[in-house]
């Protein structure tokens, strides 16, 4: 590395406020949250330690179990759905279709909007008495049902659909950038060998895009874990608790139900879950390469 | 895509490689298409085949899926309530009625206050402008310090920041609320701005660090030899070269902060609620008959600022996504 080696006192000084922010706002608050989760705190934090009682309560709570299960179902459907749809859209746009720029704008614009806006739009489309359901029924399809947001069995899928609408464009944009980077020679070679295009995409291009796909998965996973705005705007966790999510569980217990101990325990579980996913990813992204580099 | 975790000069994983790749792919797109036209490429011929028809069929369905909600929103916002109740959601409005828009802007109710969504709009402006400027400034300085100055522990600092970008807000929120109330800042404008700067720091630092890592180090060394200090080099050498990344950063932060809901809800306080929070209150907590046309108009108005940024910025927006790919 050719960076200077002079004693950079201003630079070190400049980092001090940033260190403070990181240590107080990130590390400090995180540890504080974990600490509260071991106390009997209700409305305000207290110093009565109760061990793992809050965690015990948490995992005996139906609402928490349902919200965890919902997060898993939502996560799997949303991530695979967005990957497949986004990749298909990118492949289609890569076929020299007309109006490519317009189409790209159309596919990506929902991503510029907030989850609140997304949720409210789909709430309107799924309105049982006035939305798409009514229009289609008026056309003569009497049994058509699209009132997902107010349907106990479908509310979760309403969230998935709205999420796909908002985020598939992101995957499309990432993948399209990747497809444009694929070497011409590969296409020439596969043409000479007479390999159909779809097989090249599936068995040659997809493996080449692996880092991009991984990035997309990480991005989408973060929005699953953070899923709060969309739930609040579209279903508010209902009907009942049928579309509740961990993030919403924590927020409700923190700010409306005054169950701080339980909420922080839930937040800690979220933290551990995310870390369990993140650590292997960071490991594979950073350390595996370092070792490969060190070997040469 | 190789990084040495201990070096501060190299851009961090994935996201950076992505940023460069997508940037270059973007720039290349046009010339390469010309090239493809003459060269024979192993893909489908351009004549009308079954595959080609299927392709356009898929494109049409996909475009409808993405466009329909927006079309329905605009249509609904222009109708009157009787029209909405009687007609189809896809029907065109009988006359272009802007009453709902005017009402949404200036007299929509949240609880007892009926001053319209404009209150939230101005609150969002007042929150977004200082938050964007401050977080870009902080990210630029930290990114510059991390990529050019060898400071002890800089990598640890950066690693914690990166991790912070991935963790759910729920893990930080409550202690932050307590801390802000202790210093008497909770529920103020300053509070929400500070929170936005704190949570914007990882992504801003990341993209500036990547950008500066891409600049030739000789430039920096020459400035050092000429006796430039930390701020002089930043101000006179680095900043003038940073226009592209400043644009990307501004696009990212304006949309992120404008679209934020959870932080505004928790930290802004009743007086400063951002537009997203007010919108949700208008739509989801009204009693009595819901005015769907008003709700849709208010929703469009809330989405207007990020959409404007999106349409005006075009390719820059995509570059921002790629550069900020690490953020959720």
UniProtKB/TrEMBL annotation, chain A:
Tell me, in one coarse class, where this protein mainly resides: membrane
Membrane association type: Multi-pass membrane protein
Q: Which residues form the ABC transmembrane type-1 domain?
A: 68-283
Swiss-Prot/TrEMBL keywords:
Cell membrane, Membrane, Transmembrane, Transmembrane helix, Transport
**Subcellular localization, as worded in the UniProt entry:** Cell membrane
Q: Does the keyword Transmembrane helix apply?
A: yes
- One GO cellular component term noted in the UniProt record for this chain: plasma membrane
Annotated membrane-spanning segments are 12-34, 71-93, 105-125, 154-179, 200-225, 260-283
GO process terms (BP) = transmembrane transport
Q: Which Pfam families match?
A: BPD_transp_1
Q: Which PANTHER family match?
A: ABC TRANSPORTER PERMEASE PROTEIN
Similarity comment = Belongs to the binding-protein-dependent transport system permease family.
**Protein's name in the database:** ABC transporter permease subunit
Automatic annotation (TrEMBL), chain B:
Q: Which PANTHER family does the UniProt record give?
A: ABC TRANSPORTER PERMEASE PROTEIN (PTHR43879), GLUCOSE IMPORT SYSTEM PERMEASE PROTEIN GLCU (PTHR43879:SF1)
Query: What are the record's GO terms for cellular component?
Result: plasma membrane
Q: Which UniProt keywords apply?
A: Membrane, Transmembrane, Transmembrane helix, Transport
Listed name of the protein: ABC transporter permease subunit
One of this protein's GO BP terms?
Answer: transmembrane transport
Q: Primary place of residence?
A: membrane
According to the entry, every stretch annotated as the ABC transmembrane type-1 domain falls at: 121-313
The record ties this protein, via CDD domains, to:
TM_PBP2
* Renumbered residue ranges of the record's region Disordered: 1-43
Name the family the entry cites: Belongs to the binding-protein-dependent transport system permease family.
Where are the compositionally biased (Basic residues) regions?
31-43
Q: Which residues cross the membrane?
A: 53-75, 125-149, 156-177, 183-212, 233-254, 292-312
How does the record say this protein sits in the membrane? Multi-pass membrane protein
């Amino acid at each position: 590395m050719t960076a200077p080696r002079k004693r950079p006192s201003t630079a070190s000084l400049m980092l001090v406020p940033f260190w403070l922010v990181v240590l107080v706002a990130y590390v400090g608050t995180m540890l504080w949250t974990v600490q509260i989760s071991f106390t009997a705190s209700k409305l305000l934090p207290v110093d009565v330690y109760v061990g793992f009682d809050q965690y015990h309560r948490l995992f005996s709570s139906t609402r928490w179990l349902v919200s965890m299960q919902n997060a898993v179902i939502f996560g799997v459907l949303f991530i695979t759905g967005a990957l497949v749809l986004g990749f298909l859209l990118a492949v289609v746009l890569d076929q020299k279709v007309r109006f490519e720029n317009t189409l790209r704008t159309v596919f990506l614009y929902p991503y510029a909007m907030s989850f609140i806006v997304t949720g409210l739009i789909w709430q309107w489309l799924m309105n049982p008495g006035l939305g798409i359901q009514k229009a289609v029924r008026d056309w003569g399809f009497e049994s058509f049902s699209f009132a997902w947001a107010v349907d106990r069995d479908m509310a979760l899928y309403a969230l998935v659909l709205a999420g796909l609408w908002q985020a598939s464009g992101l995957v499309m944009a990432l993948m399209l950038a990747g497809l444009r980077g694929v070497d011409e020679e590969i296409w020439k070679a596969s043409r000479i060998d007479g390999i159909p295009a779809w097989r090249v995409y599936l068995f040659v291009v997809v493996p080449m895009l692996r880092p991009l796909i991984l990035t997309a998965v990480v991005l989408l996973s973060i929005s699953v874990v953070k899923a709060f705005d969309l739930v609040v705007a579209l279903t508010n966790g209902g009907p009942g608790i049928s579309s509740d999510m961990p993030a919403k569980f924590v927020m409700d217990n923190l700010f409306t139900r005054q169950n701080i101990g339980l909420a922080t325990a839930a937040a800690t579980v979220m933290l551990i879950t995310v870390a369990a996913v993140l650590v292997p990813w960071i490991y594979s992204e950073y350390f595996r390469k370092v070792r490969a580099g060190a070997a040469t | 895509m190789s990084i040495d975790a201990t070096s501060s000069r190299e851009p961090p994983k994935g996201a950076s490689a992505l940023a460069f790749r997508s940037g270059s792919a973007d720039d290349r797109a046009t010339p390469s298409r010309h090239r493809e036209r003459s060269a024979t490429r192993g893909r489908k011929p351009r004549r009308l085949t079954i595959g080609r028809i299927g392709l356009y069929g898929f494109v049409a369905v996909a475009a409808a899926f993405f466009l329909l909600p927006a079309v329905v929103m605009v249509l609904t916002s222009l109708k009157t309530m009787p029209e909405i109740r009687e007609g189809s959601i896809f029907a065109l409005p009988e006359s272009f009625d802007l009453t709902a828009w005017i009402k949404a802007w200036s007299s929509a109710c949240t609880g007892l206050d009926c001053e319209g969504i404009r209150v939230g709009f101005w609150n969002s402006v007042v929150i977004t402008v200082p938050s964007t400027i401050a977080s870009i400034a902080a990210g630029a300085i930290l990114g510059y310090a991390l990529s050019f100055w060898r400071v002890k522990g800089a990598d640890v600092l950066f690693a914690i920041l990166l991790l912070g970008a991935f963790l759910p807000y729920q893990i930080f929120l409550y202690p932050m609320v307590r801390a802000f109330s202790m210093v008497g800042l909770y529920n103020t404008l300053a509070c929400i701005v500070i929170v936005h700067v704190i949570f914007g720091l990882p992504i801003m630092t990341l993209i500036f660090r990547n950008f500066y890592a891409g600049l030739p180090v000789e430039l920096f060394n020459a400035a050092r030899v000429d006796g430039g200090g930390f701020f002089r080099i930043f101000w006179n050498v680095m900043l003038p070269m940073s226009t592209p990344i400043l644009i990307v950063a501004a696009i990212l932060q304006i949309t992120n902060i404008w679209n934020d809901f959870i932080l505004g809800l928790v930290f802004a306080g009743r007086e400063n609620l951002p537009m997203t929070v007010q919108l949700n209150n208008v739509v989801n907590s009204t009693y009595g008959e819901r005015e769907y046309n008003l709700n849709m108009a208010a929703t469009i108005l809330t989405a207007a600022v990020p959409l404007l940024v999106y349409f005006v910025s075009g390719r820059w927006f995509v570059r921002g996504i790629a550069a900020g790919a690490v953020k959720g």
